[in-house]
Amino acid sequence: xxxxxxxxxxxxxxxxxxxxxxxxxxxxxxxxxxxxxxxxxxxxxxxxxxxxxxxxxxxxxxxxxxxxxxxxxxxxxxx
Length: 79
Known about the structure:
Blueprint: H1 5-17, H2 20-34, H3 48-67
């Protein structure tokens, strides 16, 4: 039974999308952040983690877009 349903649902989402090693690493990092550990940000940088999260998401989208290739001649000009 979940102690905090919101957190439980987010962990479930991660567990469904990550392999066991990645899941364990992310959960450990989240626990350390929760306990006040500083993973490398300046002490006065309160938005650094949000910036890194947004940048990682943007990089992922760019990488996905680069996988698509337009094949010459794959579209007919019906004019």
